[in-house]
Specification:
The complex is a heterodimer of chains A (416) and B (427).
Chain A (H helix, E strand, L loop, with lengths): L3 E4 L2 E7 L5 E11 L2 H13 L10 H10 L4 E6 L5 E11 L8 H14 L10 H20 L1 H13 L1 H5 L5 H5 L3 H14 L1 E8 L3 H11 L20 E7 L4 E8 L9 H13 L4 H9 L3 E9 L4 E8 L4 H16 L5 H17 L4 H13 L6 H10 L2 H7 L4 E10 L5
Parallel strand pairs in A: 2-6, 7-11
Antiparallel strand pairs in A: 1-2, 3-5, 3-6, 4-5, 8-10, 8-11, 9-10
Chain B lengths: L10 E4 L5 E6 L6 E7 L7 E3 L5 E3 L4 H8 L8 H7 L2 E7 L4 E7 L5 H11 L6 H19 L2 H13 L13 H6 L2 H11 L6 E6 L3 H13 L10 E2 L12 E6 L5 E7 L7 H16 L9 H6 L8 E6 L4 E7 L4 H18 L3 H18 L3 H13 L4 H10 L2 H9 L6 E8 L5
Parallel strand pairs in B: 2-8, 10-14
Antiparallel strand pairs in B: 1-2, 3-7, 3-8, 4-5, 4-9, 6-7, 11-13, 11-14, 12-13
Classes of the chains: A alpha+beta (416), B alpha+beta (427).
Chain lengths: 416, 427
């Protein structure tokens, strides 16, 4: 469905949620990635989430969420491609009792987070700021304690470009932030970010438009949204070590195809065949046939045009694993796979997309990705396209596949 | 409050061979989800049969079987499902092993038959058992380096002396290496009988068509009555195995847990679940921002924003588990005990409980939104001997007094603390 332009740079997307028992409201704010604002926007997802001007304590906000039967309310920092982004989201069940209007109450609550941040004299209160900063620092430390995350983060930092800028902020970057810097960045975002409001509901479009105008009175802004990342030419191998029982490996492959490319659906299949599905070559060869690892998969970073492979192996099998992964990539590029593999992958990928028709979060996510590249292709249309892709088209989509970055987090146990 | 609004229709049928089938129609959905499970999990290390004979298994046997059942005589099972456009997977928990698939294909009967057939056909070879061991050892290594999983496991090891909660679900290095084909064969023969298994179906396909397919499939596999097996646990000493443990790990952020082992509750599955909810809701009124002083505890540095807790109360184990991103175990223990004392003194407040009951309703509705969530919700509830709606009723009937009485009666004497410390710190 085409979006409604509420004013310049502010769009409303109404998604039919008739078959669901929940409403969902997502407000996505998007602006060009700027390294000087990145750590602050990361911290803003904490500063804006738990309290507001009218609900100045977590207890009060939580009580309001529980009046809405435990509505889930989140603020997430969700950078996408060459853009940074904050997403305000609410999911709540339909009204159960006479006189309840949970949809309007949900709009009111999301509006609170967006338009009534808890600012005093233009800055976040000091105690609240310190608490949120500490919380953000702990979250970064805990995320980096996960070796798979540490290895993947090192890979995208080495790769650079917009992907590198999206790496988690460092503790030092967060420690150096001040409340007034964060308030300034929030003001910038509120006034300048592209706004995409998504409402999944069984209620009429007229009512949703009316509620949106009433509770989300965004002003017009300059249109933006160049989310697709330019080509990166790095070729790096980064190696670190930690006291671990496994060696972790992340490999980034440049595909040359981004989300807005007509070859993208074929690339989705290529990734599925490579490592995106349990029937993939990586799973079948590297795990099942060679027994090198337990977990291995590949993910498509659609805005960057990257395929990211992640696994963990015994140190002695590292080079063998890298070779095997590269061979599987090569096999797909050369078309060294059966037609049956392609058909199977198509069925699986179509199954995944069609299943998202039954899942509010997946529907919203698909809708937003389409909005980001100004496309209006329904899931059914995409499935139809996927069904017609030939082996040659799949090979063409990864014809320029190139290994660009290898990140290794070596296991370093007992003095090795 | 009227819970009837949130109920959806379902059917429960028990076939001649004892297999229980739960059918949940989802007419507006294109996704179908089917789950086939047995109550054989990682806690099944020692079982007793009706004759009082003891059967022992290596830790990790249930999980090993889960991996290997995907192997069939002719072709990898995963590939067969993929060819049908169905996503298949499985998991092993403490108390069950489940195999499931989702599909958006209109033909649900072919993958359903495949699910029933592969789970009910043992065709594992000795060579494949050996081939699987390095893969499972890599899986074990993956869990060992996950700080949260490691902290929880070490906490169970500290508070229990013999209980299988002290082993990872996948087993340990020596048990994984020790498992043989005959171990798996015996475990399979005893624990995969239809009379102890449940099939959960969420689909828009016609009920009779689906049930007929299952009936026909099972008729061909009618087996003699299954063995009655019960889990058996060595008696635990009254004190914890270790009261204070420090584990060095190369971490940026230390973490600490406080675990209170509770006596195994007496009573039916449903009574255990009722106790678990009473504990959970009672603790929720103290250890979350619902409590008026919660923010001051964060401001004073007594806890961080990552403080969390868990209350488990089953016929096999019962404990309260508290965790925080800090390194001072004594401080965290003191905090937990002080708040529990305060809760015993003040009692659970009716208004807080009512607030939480509304939250539970929302959670139940949300968990029924997607077929794959729905099969998991029903599977979990089945293991606890109820339906999700009966669980909701049980929460609805709880009073603040029920919660208070239970919390006041807790024996908090068996307590352990575990800290994952940064390497280099004194372990």
């Amino acid at each position: 469905m085409k979006p409604y332009e509420l004013c310049s740079g502010v769009n409303l997307h109404v998604i039919d949620g008739t078959k669901f028992k929940t409403h969902a409201i997502h407000v996505n704010l998007l602006w060009s990635m700027d390294q000087s604002k990145w750590a602050a926007s990361f911290l803003l997802s904490y500063l804006l989430a738990d309290t507001t001007f009218h609900y100045p304590t977590k207890k009060q906000l939580l009580e309001q969420q529980d009046r809405l039967y435990g509505a889930s309310l989140n603020v997430l920092n969700t950078p996408r491609g060459a853009c940074d982004s904050l997403r305000f989201s609410l999911s709540e069940i339909h009204s159960l009792e006479e006189g309840e209007d949970l949809l309007e109450a949900g709009f009111e609550l999301v509006g609170e987070l967006l338009f009534y941040a808890r600012l005093e004299d233009g800055v976040f209160p000091e105690a609240m700021f310190m608490e949120c900063r500490e919380q953000a620092i702990l979250s970064v430390r805990m995320a980096m304690d996960d070796p798979a995350t540490e290895c993947a983060e090192a890979a995208i930092r080495a790769y650079g470009g917009a992907a590198g800028m999206r790496a988690l902020p460092t503790v030092e970057e967060l420690e150096s932030l001040t409340s007034s810097q964060c308030a300034e960045v929030w003001e910038f975002i509120r006034r300048n970010a592209r706004v995409d409001i998504q409402v999944l509901s069984c209620e009429s479009t007229e009512r949703i438009v009316e509620l949106t105008r009433r509770y989300f009175p965004f002003e017009a802004r300059v249109k933006q949204g160049a989310v697709i990342c330019p080509y990166q030419s790095s070729e790096l191998r980064v190696e670190t070590s930690r006291d671990l029982p496994q060696t972790h490996l992340t490999m980034l492959f440049e595909t040359g195809v981004r989300l807005n490319d007509s070859r993208y659906p074929a690339l989705v299949l290529a990734n599925g065949l490579f490592g995106g599905l349990p029937s993939s070559l990586l799973f079948r060869e590297v795990r099942e046939a060679q027994g090198l690892c337990y977990s291995i998969d590949s993910a498509l970073l659609s805005m960057d045009g990257l395929i990211r492979v992640m696994t963990a192996v015994e140190a002695e099998h590292l080079e063998e694993t890298i070779t095997s992964i590269t061979e599987q990539a090569e096999a797909i590029r050369n078309g060294s796979f059966e037609e049956e593999d392609l058909e199977m992958t198509k069925q699986m990928i179509i199954n995944v997309y069609r299943a998202s028709l039954d899942d509010p979060d997946s529907l919203l996510s698909y809708n937003y990705r389409q909005a980001l590249i100004w496309e209006v292709q329904s899931i059914e249309e995409l499935c139809k396209t996927l069904g017609t892709i030939t082996k040659q088209e799949l090979c063409d989509s990864i014809a320029s596949l190139r290994l660009t970055t290898i990140s290794i987090l070596h296991q370093n146990k007992e003095g090795e | 409050m009227n819970y009837d609004h949130i109920r959806e229709p379902y059917d429960e049928v028990t076939l001649e061979n004892g297999l229980k089938v739960i059918f949940l129609p989802k007419p507006a959905y294109c996704t179908s989800a089917f789950l086939f499970m047995t109550p054989f999990g990682s806690l099944d290390v020692i079982q007793k049969n009706a004759q009082g004979e003891t059967i022992t298994y290596e830790p990790g046997t249930a999980h090993f079987l889960e991996h290997k059942l995907f192997e069939s005589d002719a072709e990898d099972v995963m590939r067969k499902f993929s060819r049908l456009g169905a996503n298949v997977n499985a998991y092993t928990s403490y108390d069950s092993t489940a195999y499931y698939f989702t599909t958006t294909s209109q033909d649900v009967l072919t993958p359903l038959t495949l699910l029933l057939d592969f789970v009910q056909h043992f065709s594992i070879t000795e060579a494949s058992v050996e081939k699987e061991k390095p893969i499972i050892l890599e899986e074990l290594a993956m869990y060992q380096q996950d700080p949260d999983a490691r902290l929880f496991l070490e906490s169970m090891r500290a508070v229990y002396s013999f209980h299988p909660l002290g082993s990872d679900i996948v087993g340990d290095e020596s048990s994984i290496r020790a498992i043989t084909l005959s171990h798996l064969e015996e475990a399979y023969r005893r624990n995969y009988h239809p009379s102890t298994m449940t099939l959960i179906a969420v689909t828009s396909a016609p009920k009779e068509e689906v049930l007929e397919c299952i009936r026909a499939n099972q008729a061909a596999k009618h087996r003699s009555s299954g063995e009655r097996l019960v889990r058996w646990f060595r008696e635990e000493p009254p004190h914890p195995a270790h009261t204070m443990v420090r584990i060095p790990m190369e971490l940026a952020q230390p973490k600490t847990s406080v675990t209170i082992r509770l006596p195994i509750p007496q009573g039916s599955l449903k009574e255990c679940l009722r106790m678990e909810w009473a504990l959970r809701l009672g603790l929720e009124t103290v250890f979350t921002p619902i409590h008026p002083l919660y923010q001051s505890w964060i401001d004073e540095g007594r806890i961080t924003a990552y403080f969390s807790y868990e209350a488990d109360c089953t016929p096999d184990y019962a404990f309260l588990y508290f965790e925080d991103a800090q390194s001072d175990a004594e401080k965290l223990k003191q905090f937990v005990m002080e708040q529990l004392d305060g809760l015993c003194e003040e009692g659970v407040k009716e208004a807080d409980l009512e607030q939480l009951k509304r939250r539970v309703i929302g959670a139940v509705v949300r968990s029924s939104e997607h077929p794959s969530d729905l099969i998991s919700t029903w599977a979990r509830a089945q293991i606890r001997g109820v339906t999700p709606y009966e669980e909701c009723d049980l929460v609805h009937e709880l009073t603040a007094e029920d919660c208070t009485i239970l919390i006041r009666s807790l024996d908090r004497s068996c307590i352990s603390c575990v800290t994952l410390v940064q390497e280099g710190e004194n372990a």
